[in-house]
Design brief:
This protein is an alpha/beta fold. It is 39% helix and 14% strand. It has a single domain, classed as Rossmann fold (3-Layer(aba) Sandwich). The protein is built from 9 helices and 6 strands, in the order αβαβαβαβαααβαβα. It has a 6-stranded parallel β-sheet with strand order 2-1-3-4-5-6, with helices on both faces. α3 crosses α4.
């Protein structure tokens, strides 16, 4: 699906404004953490994590993006602009915390760009091996339209975006849930799952640490144990 001429520029402008606003009035030496929400969500879905991170002294940037209207490459360009705004100094280091498809955006970005500015990354319920739920909807034009071009590229076949990214080459911790509120999703996914992503599908080669929590896909970011795990990994590179 070809993006509109207006869409990419609007997304990039929005990303730059968000980065400038979020990085203002914070201590210069505070570690920046970019929050990247999932498909069909907004930055408000990560407000609990944002509050916890700010309280612990991190400089938080909430990346809001049009997850259902633009393809992966356009969204990655927008994210790249945010990273550039928070890493203006050669020695700057930035961390990422993502939910769902947000993890694939970060993996796509870091697969293309140098990782010299990358600190630690925590992904919540990422479809690192793709999602069988997307596979099931691939033959339905209506549901593909609902997912958008980015969401529709998250299947499990070899041509999907997650399957083409390869192993990670940065410190990565993954937190995934094993509770589901959707019987259809769980029926499609082999093994334990969170309703949209299987526990094993969240893994990826190069992973530093892995944690399973009793949560669903849509609520994992709001659990205190998830926030504790995120803080632990950002500080120490491991879950405690």
């Amino acid at each position: 699906m070809k993006p509109s001429a207006r869409g990419p520029w609007a997304a990039l402008l929005c990303a730059c404004l968000v980065a400038a606003a979020a990085c203002a009035d914070v201590p210069e030496d505070a570690d920046p953490v970019i929050l990247v929400h999932g498909l069909g969500r907004t930055s408000r879905s990560l407000i609990y994590l944002e509050t916890r991170l700010r309280r612990e002294g991190f400089r938080v940037v909430s990346f809001d993006y049009p997850s259902r209207t633009e393809p992966i490459e356009v969204l990655v360009d927008s994210l790249r602009s945010v990273v550039a705004g928070c890493c203006m100094h050669e020695a700057s280091e930035v961390h990422f915390v993502t939910h769902s498809m947000g993890g694939i955006l970060v993996r796509s970005l870091l697969a293309e760009d140098s990782t010299r500015h990358v600190g630690r990354v925590v992904m919540l319920s990422p479809p690192n091996q793709g999602s069988e739920v997307v596979d099931a909807f691939a033959s339905s034009p209506l549901l593909v339209a609902l997912l958008g071009p980015a969401g529709a590229s998250l299947g499990t076949d070899s041509a999907s975006v997650p399957r083409q990214l390869g192993p990670v080459r940065f410190p990565l911790g993954v937190v995934v849930g094993n509770r589901s509120l959707t019987r259809v999703g769980s029926w499609l996914i082999p093994g334990a799952d969170d309703g949209l992503v299987g526990v094993e599908q969240a893994r990826v080669d190069g992973l530093a640490d892995f944690l399973v929590v009793p949560s669903t896909h849509t609520t994992i970011m709001n659990r205190p144990e998830t926030a504790d795990a995120v803080l632990s990994f950002l500080r120490f590179g491991r879950f405690e």
